[in-house]
């Protein structure tokens, strides 16, 4: 019994110290991203742009392909029920609303977490193992400024941008299967889609995706700084980074969905 | 003979990981312009001591004075300032793997100065020539040999023209010829720039060549401080054993000691 209590206590303490470290990281990132540039201490724009290309542009092929296929799948699944009522034209509504409000932001975030969140952890973790983080510190270069701020900016730009494109592609996927497999009139599908989308749907998805980007970046960075030991530690934290990021993405998703449900 | 004010003063330093005290009652001072060697076997705490000296770790108690200012008690902003007058060469060189050699050397200049890009380029080339590395500017660190990487690390540490330079195991993992070359470089740096140098090592051979004064660490305590000749006169059993390169009767005891430090509960 005492063992159990001790375990719970230790777990709670470790969670608390993790929360503390994350909040220090959050404050530091904010300082280096917003306050320092105002004081004339520059941000590493070049690095930010390079990372935006890596996180955003290079993620497009895989995100686009997956989102297209998911659009195809939802349309077919929707037809399974709607067909019984002769309401196949409503496939468009279903695909559009689920893509915008939920699936495009979620799929994009999960894919970018797997592709780039892990890469962030691996990069920072390897740097820690090779004493490169220590070297930065000794040179008087703040690791958060040098490494985290550009990545954070890149992530917050990339995830929503890719999400916006993913939304469009997912709807296109739905259109393709509804038109070519189910047999909906192409123009009917388009009209139905346009008619079903409201501004709020788009906004919901975009706001969520910004916070998904925040979650992916911080988890990746935090896990990277957590690396202990050698290559094995990098591997362990990289895995943990992806799992934690996906978990956090779902939690953030839930919070915003509940919020938008009432607003 | 009155000696000038020491650059580094370590007073009653105690360092611990959790309950385990790894450094205790450490006292020494480093004079300006000398090469001060911290010598010790594996697990003696010499790397930990170095990490405290450069501020990568905080001691549990005691003080480290650099240029008369308490390095352990200052704010992180002040520490960043002091660090610009210090350079450090890491054991594995710790060059940033994503940057070319030239960019690595230029990094402190780009971060801390507002110099023109062309000036930075020239300064980078001068520093690389200084350590005998011209013509490899555009290589990535992974494309260099171990000795060249160490040299590049020294060039980077020298980028901001520091007053103090720290070397962590400069000759570890290098063949004797390359290691001797590095010893020579450390000497040249010190004599050319009157650079206060602190070298952590376990290689007796290089100690004989470079050391002005030596501090021998044993099991987290100072076994002796002085010139090599002075230390050879002492009858401290560990120092004698280390200098004579005699194996330990209680090899296992030492191994157990090292393990007790590195064990994580």
Structure notes:
- The complex is a heterodimer of chains A (263) and B (265).
- Chain A is mostly helical and 263 residues long.
- Chain A has one domain (2-262).
- Helix content of chain A is 87%, strand content 0%.
- Chain A has helices spanning 2-38, 45-55, 60-82, 91-129, 132-138, 143-182, 186-196, 199-226, 231-262.
- Chain A starts with a helix and ends with a helix.
- By secondary structure, chain B is of the alpha/beta class.
- Chain B folds into 2 domains: 8-85 and 164-262, P-loop containing nucleotide triphosphate hydrolases (Rossmann fold); 96-161, no CATH class.
- In chain B, 40% of the residues lie in helices and 23% in strands.
- Chain B has 10 helices and 10 strands.
- In chain B, helix 6 links the parallel strand 7 and strand 8.
- Chain B starts with 7 loop residues before the first strand and ends with a helix.
- The model of chain B has no long low-confidence stretch (mean pLDDT 86).
- The interface between A and B is medium-sized, with 16 and 25 residues.
What's the topology here?
The complex is a heterodimer of chains A (263) and B (265).
Chain A: H1 2-38, H2 45-55, H3 60-82, H4 91-129, H5 132-138, H6 143-182, H7 186-196, H8 199-226, H9 231-262
Chain B: E1 8-17, E2 20-30, E3 35-40, H1 46-53, E4 61-66, E5 69-70, H2 76-83, E6 86-89, H3 101-112, H4 117-130, H5 146-158, E7 164-168, H6 176-193, E8 196-201, H7 204-210, E9 213-218, E10 221-226, H8 228-233, H9 237-244, H10 251-262
